[in-house]
Amino acid sequence: MDTSTLYILGSVAVVLIIYALIIVFKRGNKEFNPKLSLKERLELEKMVEKKVKEEDKNEEEKTEELVSEVEKKIAEPVEQNVNKVEFASKEIANEIHRFETYVDIGNTKVQQSIRNGVQNFLNQDHMLALEEFSLSTESNPNDAIGFYCRGLTKLALKNYESALADFTEAINLKFKGPNAFYYRALTYYNMRDLDNAILNFNAYINQEKNNSEAYFDLGVCFKEKDKIKEALQNFSLAIQKRPAFGASYFERGLLRHKQDDKEGGCADLKKAFGLGYLEADSYLDDLCGNDSD
């Protein structure tokens, strides 16, 4: 076979090889870039649409949960937004101080009036405090806090009849906690209505059984009604709740002497004096004599 023939055959072979490579390359491209049929494209669109709907549903559920949480916060009783409830006592400033940071999400005007009233009370400007608390009751006649704080202010000013009306309104409006009963009892006591004072002290104690001062006040009411047995019982309960309650030992000591229990009476008077209740000293000399040593 001559040289020219070999050359021609070689050229043909090269051309065939190049053609074969071109075909393989094109097929490879088709494999990596397939052309979708109409059916395949519709199925893919359905899958995408389903995924979008699922994501939208998740977002809606999250939004609903968030709205629900906000609604719950708004629906919470505003009484929750006060400082911790302590035992009621005759220190009215301590009680009214609880509402210094009072929150009412639904009525910022009421909120501000009550806060202003508390500040005025603590600054001993009771008349301005009354004005602010009255504004809060006008802004929301169904809000117990405004009536309660105004009642406390009137009690401090010894305006007992008007204070009584405010405490009663606060209780009717479901004021949270028993303290309104305690201060209404004090109001009745100062009005010399001992029977209603006793009823309200008992209403307070039924909800708050550990306040020694309430038992002491109840004992004083029974003492003034000359119900010695009930008075002794409540002074003893006051001591049980607070063992270092000098005034209760003093009152119980006097009643024991009245019942001819000299030994028990002197023991109580000595205890009262030892706890710093200095008024017991003169009674020790008069009632116990040499036994006071």
Outline the structure in words.
There is one protein chain. By secondary structure, this protein is an all-alpha fold. The chain has helices at residues 3-32, 38-75, 92-96, 108-122, 126-139, 144-156, 160-172, 179-190, 194-207, 212-224, 228-241, 246-258, 262-274, 280-288. Helix 4 packs parallel to helix 6, helix 11 runs antiparallel to helix 12 and helix 12 (246-258) packs antiparallel against helix 13 (262-274). It starts with a helix and ends in a 5-residue tail after the last helix.
List the helices and strands and how they pair.
Elements: H1 3-32, H2 38-75, H3 92-96, H4 108-122, H5 126-139, H6 144-156, H7 160-172, H8 179-190, H9 194-207, H10 212-224, H11 228-241, H12 246-258, H13 262-274, H14 280-288
Helix pairs in contact: 4-5, 4-6, 5-6, 6-7, 7-8, 8-9, 9-10, 10-11, 11-12, 12-13, 13-14
